[in-house]
Design a protein that fits this description.
The protein is of the alpha/beta class. It is 47% helix and 30% strand. The chain is built from five helices and five strands. It has a five-stranded mixed sheet, sandwiched between helices. The longest helix is centred in the middle third of the chain and has 17 residues. The chain is globular.
């Protein structure tokens, strides 16, 4: 599946949207595109919108590798917020496993939501704390 990147707040945030039947290759491609589009490390938050995904096929090692990519990115843009949005039946625990790896390999703060609107509230609340 293809992905779209929608940067917002003058490049400080990005909504990464994927839909359909997703594989690890889809996540890796979207992650690479995201970081290539942010060469100066300005990102402060990412909202991964998987709400229109039918399925997600990833292994534990795929999620570990994704967290390792994020670990490298966190050296350039530390302290990012990462919101993962999607139906529980599709995510099937992949979000929790990714979050566990990300806690070990990055300084990103991760959270899972059922909707993008709930993720946006969390991002706004936490961005305010980061600025204070």
């Amino acid at each position: 599946m293809s992905h779209t990147l929608a940067f917002e707040k003058h490049g400080l945030g990005c909504v990464v949207t994927l839909s359909g039947s997703l594989t690890a290759a889809d996540l890796f491609a979207a992650n690479l595109s995201l970081y290539e589009a942010d060469p100066d490390g300005r990102l402060r938050y990412q909202i991964w919108d998987l709400t229109r995904a039918n399925s997600l096929t990833v292994s534990a090692s795929d999620l570990h590798e994704l967290a390792a990519q994020d670990g490298e990115a966190s050296e350039e843009a530390p302290g990012q917020l990462v919101a993962i949005c999607g139906p529980t039946g599709v995510l099937r625990g992949a979000n929790e496993l990714y979050s566990m790896y990300a806690d070990e390999m990055t300084d990103f703060k991760t959270e899972t939501f059922s909707s993008v609107s709930r993720a946006r509230l969390w991002v706004e609340r936490n961005l305010g704390r980061m600025a204070a």
